[in-house]
Design brief:
By secondary structure, the protein is of the alpha+beta class. The chain folds into two domains: 75 residues, no CATH class; 139 residues, no CATH class. Helix content is 24%, strand content 37%. The strands form three sheets. Strands 1, 2, 3, 4, 5 and 6 form a six-stranded antiparallel β-sheet that branches. The longest helix has 18 residues. The radius of gyration is 21 Å and the shape is globular. The protein starts with a strand and ends in a 6-residue tail after the last helix.
């Protein structure tokens, strides 16, 4: 097995993986040559980010993550990301049962971690360049999977939602709770979230969720 450190040039990129966000300053490349029973040769490579946390010295290796597992957040010379990019990153690391077991899921509270680093999320503006009240429509898709009878996810809207529930009461509670996270982390903006769903079986549930007043977190 051989290793090599690939140093990167500035400006560095902020990356995130396994619930952590840091500045990607270099890459540790691990080479391993193998030979199977037939004498066939193969070269396996692994690329682990070397990062700098905003409150720690340089040189932390993410040994549980490879580059392909990571998502680029922004560049150090442009410490901003759009609301769409924020949603995209949350959707890559949903708070699913499997991710919760691994401790790798992200939720909207991640915005606070970004702000600690100095990264801001750009809020949508009107054509006049000013911020206005917005009603965001979040269309939901609700289906079962092998583990849960109710798995709910949005249809690529402005806010990411992913919920796994054992019954409709839990589904309703979790949707309200995760909606209220967005109200909390974006409390400096004037907006509402309105859920919709094409499956008419959930009309009353969606109506109840939409009529439930936000609670402070």
């Amino acid at each position: 097995m051989k290793t090599e450190i690939l140093k990167l040039d500035r400006p560095y990129k902020y990356i995130t993986c396994n619930g952590s966000t840091a500045l990607h300053i270099a890459t540790l490349i691990v080479y391993e040559a193998t030979e199977d029973e037939d004498g066939e040769y193969a070269l396996n490579t692994h690329s682990h980010p070397i990062v700098r946390y905003f409150d720690c010295p340089d040189g932390t290796v993410w040994n549980r993550a490879e580059l392909r597992d990571c998502e680029v957040v922004c560049s150090e010379d442009e410490m901003r990301l759009s609301l769409k990019k924020f949603r995209k990153i949350l959707s890559r690391y949903p708070e699913s049962y499997d991710n919760e077991m691994e401790g790798t899921g992200l939720n909207p509270i991640w915005k606070k971690d970004l702000e600690d680093i100095g990264i801001q999320i750009v809020w949508p503006m009107g054509e006049d360049g000013k911020e206005h009240y917005i009603e965001f429509e979040v269309k939901l898709d609700i289906k079962p999977n092998k583990r849960f009878p109710y798995v709910c996810q949005d249809w690529y809207t402005d806010f990411f939602f992913y919920v796994e529930a054992d019954d409709q009461e839990e589904l309703k509670r979790l949707l309200v709770h995760k909606r209220d996270w967005y109200y909390y982390v974006f409390k400096e903006h004037q907006f509402t979230i309105k859920f919709t769903c094409d499956d008419k079986r959930y009309d009353s549930l969606i109506k109840e969720v939409n009529e439930t007043k936000p609670k402070e977190i």
